[in-house]
Amino acid sequence: MEYPQTGAIIQIHSYKHDGHIHRAWKETVVLKGSEEEIIGGNDRTLVTEADGRTWVTREPAICFFYEKHWFNIIAMIRAEGVYYYCNISSPYVWDGEALKYIDYDLDIKVFPNGQYEILDRDEYERHRDEMNYPEIIDKILKNNIQKLIQWIKEKKGPFAPEVVEHWYKKFIMYGK
């Protein structure tokens, strides 16, 4: 499998299950590119929504995308600590143009104190019906929510404080 090389500046494209673009991030620096995961960093990057509206991210973020997990994790670095926004999504695909994934609506927000909240259950139910998510996708997504909650509770992967700190230092080295 191809993947972007460390130091490359890439775009991130999020889609919905029906194939429509959901959101695009203009610039993310690849901090690690491998078959298993892509770790990137961005700060004040332009984001374009499906309807054409744009906005700019407010703080540095370290993004973790996986080839085998049905979620991605965005660690947002703020003065009061690291907040995480976890998207329940398909594994990433790199096609040479952008890192791409399907956003499946459900999200988990994790606060600096480790507390978490599952978001957008209503949106998930509505889209599951409108876009006819297959039963197997529904099962995979629900299993991955449980896996993600376990990672949060065990401070595994990006939820270990030293992990985000490590990748943020690398991001700073790229001058972004």
From TrEMBL:
Residues 18-156 form the DUF402 domain. It comes from the Bacteria. Transmembrane segments: none annotated. Keywords: Aminoacyl-tRNA synthetase, Hydrolase, Ligase, Magnesium, Metal-binding. Its EC number is 3.6.1.15, 3.6.1.6. Mg(2+) 1 binds at N87, D103, D107. This is Nucleoside triphosphate/diphosphate phosphatase. It comes from Anoxybacillus flavithermus.
